[in-house]
Amino acid sequence: MRRCGPTSALTIFVAYAPTSSYEEEEVEAFYMDLEKFYREDHAFYKFIIGDFNAKVGPRRTPEELHIGTHGLQWNDQGERLSEFIMTTRTIHGNSQLQKPSSLRWTWESPGGGYRNEIDHIIVSIRFCLADVAVVAKFYTGSGHRLLRRGFFFTKREEKVAKFRERNSRTGNEKPI
Question: What angle do CA 16, 120, 12 make, to 5 degrees?
Answer without folding.
Answer: 70
